[in-house]
Design goal:
The chain is of the alpha+beta class. Helices cover 23% and strands 37% of the residues.
């Protein structure tokens, strides 16, 4: 179904092209665009002996190295059996590619996605020995019969059989199928017609005797046009009468040796020559085009010709292949040698075309479209240098030159003003004067009695590039930086000073010019178009225009075409804009995309020659645009030409688009056999992913890597340079799921899941029972734990109470220890006081006591001092209160003596030195000495407090 739809689309396109082309003549001036394909492009041999185009628009070429196929994007070579050189190619109604060469002929069968299979018919020939010496130079198709023509015989292929047609011992030259009849040229007897399987000589065959017929094409009124090698063209009427067709091209065809021919559209004919390229004639025999190596062809020897679906002419050359865009509205004059330079201005004047370039003024004869015009430009004398503008003033050609103003007189330029750098001329309405914009201001040009520069204005020598008249005596002037108002009285030739008016314009904006658009003066700038408000005396954006122009709002040129139609140019990008009655714009900004980038930025120039033809200046010549030469707007949907699996190696895929999971890298190539000087762009969408349509790009293949398993649909469409989109072509394919996701495994997974659910349920029930048991045990455990916690809490409370009690007991014991110590201190102090009092005590006689008496008493006091019973009681109580403090201290520091232990105990009770001295019955100084010695025994650093150390011990 898709093939049928594509065939219907292609048929409709061909039919539309034929209807559009009918009645349109190929332009006679300029040269059609020639797309060159050299052997480095198609990677095959030099010579291309035959060409044919199939219903999809693919071009098939009989090349010396095999069959070449061009799908619009890529060339591919299909070598022949035994590397046979091909001499001919044709395509039958079934789409088979019929080929013939040295000792071999057959057909290629075209399958989808680039697959081609060759079937040799040579084995069907009975005389194999003579076949090896034959070469198939022509293939003629007559319904279901195919004639493979050699110079000695013709092999007829019909009903899978080969029969041989000979000429009773005479050799053949070529055979032709024209107007439903089949002709053979025999040497030397001449032209014959094949009737009922027999060759019948034409009545007037002798008129072509020895002329070598190389082409026969349909002509007007069922006539046949016969092309001979070196004797020109002949016309054969339906009744067989033959006459020499004497045409202006006769000498050309004889001199350069006609080699082949093909009928074009609109009763026009193309003939390839051996020595001078392609010549195109109309039905009057006039040359309307000549394309050779000088203006586009790679080679002047044309071996074959054919037409594609767009009526482009293809030429198989002795060295290369060329496509000649004869049906394009754009024709070109290309300055191949660079002698002209860059074209800045042009003018048609007195049947000549003048080009102003950066090197001077050049001219050539101009015949318009009435006669073939092979333009040959020559430099106008005295014009060397930069030519900025050309103007027809009062019937005279005036040249604005870098060196001044020049007038064309007697074929050369004569300078009439030395004011340099003339950019533009502007007529002054209602007078015979013109204004001139130049490097230093504005000049007034008078036309009577002769053209002269009457006066120069601009006291500050301000350069002026643009002029536009705003009123009878009011003018707008500008350069790239400023806009000026200028008032001029032509009667007195007096002008005002330049008044700078920039109010309302953005700062640092670049001005492009002043133009008249629908009777409105508009100011072009890089920030859009502006109008001048005469009431506010200020510029304002022309929003209504800018909004509709979109990107062309910053156009730098406006050139009128006709009423309500204009060229807008933005940095060499051209748009044609037509303005409707209600002010709506119809914008065509894509028809001239082929010229984008080929114009000189800021110096773009278009000359409207007439209402049918416009000249567009280019960097290396100019283009001629024919307004009436339209083309079909439809383009065929892309064809998917190849599919490759690139996972491990690049291998073509022709069927079975269900790819294994581990073969998930796919490359898809596509093309649309629609030919133009600017390549088509493509956009694709892969359904099955989360990505949308891609951006438009010229790449004609797409590679997808690491695709996940699933179903995919690849969609692709094309867009032409003028913005026309094609229908969508689709391809569905799939990536297989891995083995563990296929149906047997899925069924197994379901069984396993059911089994798992069963066991899970059993497990759940068992677990539920277990959990219930555990819950009961847990509740019991929690109760026990709760009771244990209560017991523990109660025990903790008891321990806390005991601790409080113990602390209280410790406090009481410490208090008792302190009291005991204080009692010992008090006792010792009393003994000391008693000892002192005894020394002053007298007996009854008033005498002091005797020494014996004192000694006995002092001994008792001393014994009381040295009595350790108090200390033993104190030590016992202290150990109870402070957990065997003395034992631990003695164990840690064995060098301590009892007095040291006493001192430690008193210090732990935080007693003062005075109290300790009384307890130990020593002086305070003695206490300090003991403290010092104790520190030494305890190895305490000087920074450590002794009492704190004992409290922490």
């Amino acid at each position: 179904m898709s093939k049928l739809i594509r065939a219907l689309i292609m048929f409709s396109l061909v039919l539309a092209g034929a209807v559009i082309s009918r009645g349109q003549d190929i332009p006679r001036v300029g040269t059609p665009f020639v797309q060159q394909y050299d052997k480095s492009s198609y990677h095959a041999g030099n010579q291309n002996w035959g060409m044919s185009v199939n219903r999809d628009g693919f071009v098939y070429v009989a090349n010396t190295e095999g069959l070449l196929v061009f799908d619009g994007q890529r060339w591919k070579l299909h070598p022949m059996k035994n590397n046979v050189t091909l001499r001919s190619v044709n395509i039958d109604q079934s789409g088979r590619i019929l080929v013939g060469g040295a000792g071999e002929f057959g057909y290629w069968t075209v399958h989808p996605y680039g697959k081609m299979e060759y079937t040799s018919l040579a084995p069907l020939v009975k005389d194999q020995r003579n076949l090896k010496n034959d070469e198939i130079w022509r293939i003629v198709i007559d319904d279901d019969k195919v004639y493979f023509h050699t110079f000695s015989k013709s092999y007829l292929y019909h009903d899978d059989k080969i029969t041989t047609i000979t000429a009773d011992g005479e050799p053949f030259l070529f055979s032709f199928k024209v107007n439903g009849k089949h002709y053979f040229e025999q040497i030397p007897s001449g032209l014959h017609e094949l009737k009922n399987g027999k060759l019948v000589q034409l009545p007037e065959a002798n008129k072509l005797h020895g002329m070598n017929i190389l082409c026969m094409v349909p002509f007007a009124q069922n006539e046949i046009l016969i092309g001979t090698a070196k004797n020109g063209l002949f016309r054969m009427q339906p009744d067989g009468k033959i006459s020499h067709w004497r045409t202006p091209a006769d000498d050309f065809l004889k001199k350069y040796q006609l080699n082949n021919g093909v009928k074009l559209y609109g009763e026009q004919y193309a003939f390839g020559t051996i020595q001078n390229g392609v010549v195109i004639l109309n039905d009057q025999g006039e040359i309307i085009q000549h394309i050779n190596k000088n203006n586009g062809l790679q080679n002047n020897t044309v071996l074959s010709l054919t037409l594609d679906k767009q009526n482009n002419l293809w030429a198989g050359l002795d060295n290369g292949i060329d496509r000649i865009a004869i049906n394009s509205p754009l024709y070109y004059y290309t300055d191949i040698t660079g002698s002209l330079g860059t074209v800045y201005t042009s003018k048609i004047y007195n049947d000549k075309i003048y080009l102003g370039t950066n090197q001077g003024l050049y001219r050539s004869d101009w015949y318009g479209d009435t006669k073939y015009n092979a333009l040959k430009f020559s430099l106008v004398p005295n014009s060397e240098g930069q030519v900025w503008t050309l103007e027809n003033i009062d019937g005279k050609l005036v040249c604005g030159h870098n060196n001044g103003t020049y007038l064309l007189q007697e074929g050369k330029l004569v300078r009439i003003s030395t004011v340099t750098g003339v950019w533009k001329f502007q007529p002054i309405k209602g007078s015979s004067y013109w204004l001139q914009a130049n490097y230093t201001g504005v000049g007034l040009v008078s036309t009577h009695p002769t053209i002269t520069l009457s006066k120069q204005f601009g006291e500050h020598k301000t350069p002026i590039r643009y002029i536009k008249q705003a009123g009878n005596d009011q003018f707008w002037l500008s350069n790239h930086q400023n806009v000026f108002n200028f008032k001029l009285d032509t009667l007195t030739q007096s002008g005002s000073a330049f008044t700078n008016i920039n109010t309302g314009l953005p700062a640092n904006t670049k001005l492009y010019g002043i133009y008249n658009l629908e009777n409105n003066i508009v100011f072009a700038s890089d920030s859009g178009f502006y109008l001048f408000d005469n009431i506010l005396r200020s510029f304002k954006p022309y929003q209504e225009l800018n909004n509709q122009l979109a990107t062309f709002a910053s156009a730098n040129k406006i050139i009128p075409i006709k009423k309500h139609a204009y060229w807008f140019i933005k940095k060499s990008h051209i748009a044609k804009i037509e303005i409707s009655v209600n002010g709506q714009l119809e914008i065509d900004s894509s028809s001239w995309n082929t010229l984008k980038g080929k114009l000189m930025n800021d110096y773009e120039h278009i000359l409207n020659v007439d209402d049918k033809l416009s000249l567009i200046a280019l960097d290396n010549g100019f283009a001629l645009y024919s307004h009436q030469r339209t083309k079909s707007e439809s383009i065929p949907p892309p064809i998917i030409t190849n599919i490759w699996n690139t996972t491990t190696e690049v291998s073509p895929v022709y069927d079975n688009f269900d790819f294994p999971k581990n073969q998930n890298n796919i490359r898809i190539a596509f093309s649309s056999s629609w030919y133009s000087s600017t390549p088509l762009r493509y956009q694709y969408l892969l359904e099955g992913t989360n990505q949308g349509w891609s951006v438009w790009e010229e790449a004609s293949f797409r590679e997808f890597t690491n695709l996940s398993y699933g179903d995919y649909t690849f969609n692709v469409r094309a867009i032409s340079p003028d913005g026309t989109q094609s229908e969508i072509t689709s391809l569905s394919f799939s990536i297989q799921a891995p083995w563990y996701f296929k149906w047997p495994m899925v069924a197994f997974y379901i069984f396993v899941v059911i089994l798992l659910l069963y066991f899970a349920n059993r497990h759940y029930e068992h677990r539920l029972h277990t959990q219930q048991q555990k819950l009961k045990a847990k509740l019991l455990t929690e109760q026990q734990e709760h009771l244990a916690k209560e017991v523990a809490a109660n025990e903790k409370k008891l321990i806390s109470l005991k601790n409080v009690q113990l602390e209280q007991e410790l406090i009481n014991k410490n208090r008792e220890l302190a009291n005991s110590a204080l009692n010992i201190v008090y006792k010792n102090e009393m003994l000391n006081t008693l000892h002192q009092e005894l020394r002053t005590l007298n007996d009854s006689s008033g005498n002091k006591l005797s020494s014996d008496q004192l000694r006995r008493v002092n001994k008792l006091i001393e014994e009381a001092h040295n009595d350790d019973r108090d200390w033993d009681i104190f030590e016992k109580s202290f150990n109870e209160a402070h957990e065997n403090f003395f034992k631990k201290l003695k164990a840690e520091y064995p060098a301590l003596v009892p007095n040291d232990l006493k001192l430690c105990a008193y210090l732990r009770l935080n007693m003062s030195s005075k109290e300790i001295a009384s307890l130990l019955n020593i002086s305070i100084r003695g206490v300090e000495i003991r403290r010092y010695r104790l520190r030494k025994k305890l190895n305490l650093q000087t920074s450590k407090n002794l009492s704190e150390f004992l409290l922490e011990f």
